[in-house]
Amino acid sequence: MSKKPQLSDVPGIGAKMEEKLREAGFKTVAALSKTASDKLAKKVDGLSEAGAAKLIKAAQELAPPPKAKEEKPKKAPTKKEKPEKKAEKAAPKKAKEKPTVKKVKAKAKEEKPKKKVAKKVETPTRGTLVEPRLLRIANAMRKRQPRFRHEQAHRWVRVSDSWRKLRGIDNATREKRKGRIAMVSPGYRKPKAARGIHPSGYVEVLVHKPSDLEGLDPDLYAIRIGATIGLRKRTEILTVAETMLLKVLNPGAPDVVEEEELFADLEGIDDLEVD
């Protein structure tokens, strides 16, 4: 067997350098080959990093190669019992419990799928459609609300009473000066939930023809016939509304008096003498 290399065998290391390396803690070639050049230069006085790198490289060439680890032969796998089976063997056998009537019923209830119960949808009525408090507020505001007229309706006959928006730049009414008529403004609006609802509690629906009455619930809706509807169509709407039991807010149609009813009171009266 070859002897282990010593520090004196490394080229570039003399007697003084060997003493310095031993004082620094590097006593073997293997220890010198495994160090870094900057660390070696710091520990040894008078040695630069370049000189340390040369010594380390020379030591690595002389250092013996690391021994390869001998691989041990693998043992043949032996059959081992699973931990589950061991636990089963170790655990004592429990006596089987006899099923009772209560347990059987409880299992049957768990196995049965739960039926989905449909939620009941409550149909709205006049009482539940809007809160009575909001209706009272809307009615009180309606009583205090002024009559909105055209600005010059009190002065000129040719001007109608219907409200018209004011557009003049210097209009005193638009500027809301004192002594002028009331102008339409958002402050007169009713509560949002109570808008479009008649004081009686019905939802007001504007109607222009008999087909507009289809699908209206008489417990919720009341109809208002349009102002431009003639007598013939108005009577048609009234007959359909009567069959559907719908409330009409502005019937306005005169009662049609038949000829038989007109002369019913004259029965039994003698002929009148004509002068």
What's the alpha carbon Rg, rounded to whole Å? 56 Å
How widely separated are the two ends? 174 Å
Q: How many separate helices?
A: 10
Q: What is CATH's topology name of the domain at 7-62?
A: DNA polymerase, domain 1
Could you name the ranges where pLDDT drops below 50 across 5 or more consecutive residues?
Answer: none
Q: Which second-level CATH architecture of the domain at 7-62 applies?
A: Orthogonal Bundle
Specify the CATH homologous superfamily of the domain at 7-62. 5' to 3' exonuclease, C-terminal subdomain
What is the residue-mean pLDDT, rounded to a whole number?
76
Structural class: mainly alpha
If strands are numbered along the chain, what order do they take across the biggest sheet? 1-2-3
Q: Major β-sheet, in short?
A: 3 strands, parallel
Based on CA inertia axes, which overall geometry fits? elongated
Strand fraction equals: under 5%
Oligomer state equals single chain
Strand runs, count: 3
- Strand-and-helix sequence, N→C? HHHHHHHHEEHEH
CATH class of the domain at 7-62: Mainly Alpha
Query: Helix amount, in percent?
Result: 25-40%
